[in-house]
Amino acid sequence: MERIKRKILITGGAGFIGSHVIKLFVNNYPDYDIYNLDKLTYAGNLENLKEIETKDNYSFIKGDIVDSDLMQNIFQEFHFDSVIHLAAESHVDRSIANPKEFIDTNILGTLNLLNAARNEWAEGGNYRFYHISTDEVYGSLGEDGIFLETTAYDPRSPYSASKASSDHLVRAYYHTYKLPVVVSNCSNNYGAFQFPEKLIPLAINNIQKKKDIPIYGKGENIRDWLFVEDHAKAIDVIFHHGVIGETYNVGGNNEWMNINLIKALCGIMDEKLKRDVGESAKLITFVEDRAGHDLRYAIDSSKLQNELGWSPSLQFQEGLEKTVDWYLANEDWLASVTSGDYQKYYDNQYGIT
Ligand code: NAD
Ligand code: DAU
Question: Disulfide check for 12: which of 79, 87, 283, 314 has CB 3.0–4.6 Å away?
């Protein structure tokens, strides 16, 4: 069957997940034109895209999704037929410190993209607006339970409230204006190129530098972890085969209590850095809990597995080892992303002078 040639706008493509998605699409679909729109905030880095930056089917546009005129203009100029929307402020702790940017980018920015697509796309055309979201919109679980696509929204941080709001807007544009949308909600990603403010790369960075590993509260919170390349593959499958108007949960079926995850990571780091067994774990330091810290996330991705045939490919131990290897081999990347404002933000947070 002949493949439809696509002109795809991918937002947030210089970030962690976005850069993996861009690389997958640019490499696997040479006949698609891929446009990466990114503001290049502290979390966006063109170094993440070195591997594909000179490819003919890839273009970069520096821009802010909050700029509604720019969004209208680029739609008119490039005639995108699809959007994969990943651009967002993504870190929960930053949303607690400063919610405003989360409201601007995650809600207004999404609205601007929806409006630009709606203005440009004729009803009934072969278009697709794919919105990438998070399992955090479903709230927090106790010891039991699992998030389904039908679970009622109950966001509890400014970040998750802003993502929930954007999900609602996307679905409202489907129901009200028949915009052809699809949504996915994913659990915690880990892997190469993740900014070292998130738990796993932060711990790897600190262990390597023999700095304390801050564990919020008692470390008893639970997250479901998915290797980022498996998420990128799920995005590929949902983009091509997801049913318009539907939502798909994406997860690793891989729940870990934070403290147990960090102990496992310390074991891997001891081995890789040829340190004594138990040396890295001595860096574990319990600190004040995150405000409103969600206890547990667990996500049921059987709809995606049964209907579209996706499943996670990597075991956690293998994924963690690959991730550690990547960070140890990319000290320059770590040094460059942690220079400047980030180090000030981090030191302030933990009272480091
Ligand atoms: P990230 O913070 O690593 O990257 C976000 C990217 O968006 C950066 O390149 C940044 O420059 C860009 N950006 C931010 N504000 C922008 C703006 N106003 N205009 C244009 N670009 C802007 O985020 P990530 O972890 O890669 O997450 C990507 C998406 O996936 C987000 O929508 C997030 O909510 C969602 N998500 C993330 C996870 C996770 O574990 N990281 C899990 C589920 C869903
Ligand atoms: O569930 C999906 C979400 O996962 C995404 O939507 C978010 O964009 C992404 O940031 C992530 O959110 P979390 O808050 O779960 O991830 P984070 O890495 O910040 O924290 C993971 C767990 O570790 C959480 O329980 C808080 C805890 N933690 C985090 C940090 C940064 C610590 O104990 N110490 C830390 O220093």
Answer: 87
